[in-house]
Amino acid sequence: MSHINCIHNGEIIFPVDGTLFSYKTVLKCTYWFGDKFHINIQREGAQDYKITLRPMPNAAIADGDLPYYLQKLERDLVDFHLREIVSNETSTVRELLVAKAFSNGEYDEVPPGEISDPVGFTPLN
Questions:
Q1: CA torsion, ordered 48, 89, 29, 73, to nearest 10 deg
Q2: Which residue in 11, 48, 64, 3 sits closest to 33, CA to CA?
Q3: Cβ atoms 113, 120 nearer than 8 A
Q4: What's the rounded Cα separation, in Å, for the pair 44 and 50?
Q5: What sign does the CA torsion over 5, 6, 7, 8 have?
Q6: Is the pLDDT of residue 1 over 60?
Q7: Model confidence over 72-94: pLDDT tens digits?
């Protein structure tokens, strides 16, 4: 598979290394291009993908606009990949917060300090 992002015959061709980016990330990223482009995602080999974006006729995208969308696709893929990493790394904290929110007070503790000093900076006598 060629690993060069390019514009060819009025289409954006974007190879994706499947060892770096998940299919879920590719789908989330390309979804936002669906209002202006026909999106084709093909498997290339065992792990890689090839994204092809072809402008829809009613989107009125000029050939001169395609470099902007190619750069946007590059940025968005990294953005959604980073979101996936953060989501995976914070899933336990989110689950604990949801459990706490719906616990009906089972795990409530009396907060330290006084109401006038909720953080507890003033030493207690």
A1: -80
A2: 11
A3: yes
A4: 6
A5: negative
A6: no
A7: 999 999 999 999 999 999 988 88
The kind and range of the H/E element at 30 are helix 23-31
Locate 94 and state its tokens: 């989110």
Task: Indicate the pairing of strand 48-55 with strand 37-44.
Answer: antiparallel
Q: How far apart are CA 123 and CA 114, in angstroms?
A: 10
The β-bridge partners of 55 are 37
Tell me the per-residue pLDDT of 7-40, one tens digit each, with 9 for 90 and over: 999 999 999 999 999 999 999 999 999 999 999 9
| Full DSSP string of 60-118 | ---GGGHHHHHHHHHHHHHHHHHHHHHHHHHHHHHHHHHHHHTSTTTT--PPSSBTTBT
Please tell me what DSSP assigns to residue 5. Answer: -
- Whole-prediction pTM value? 0.72
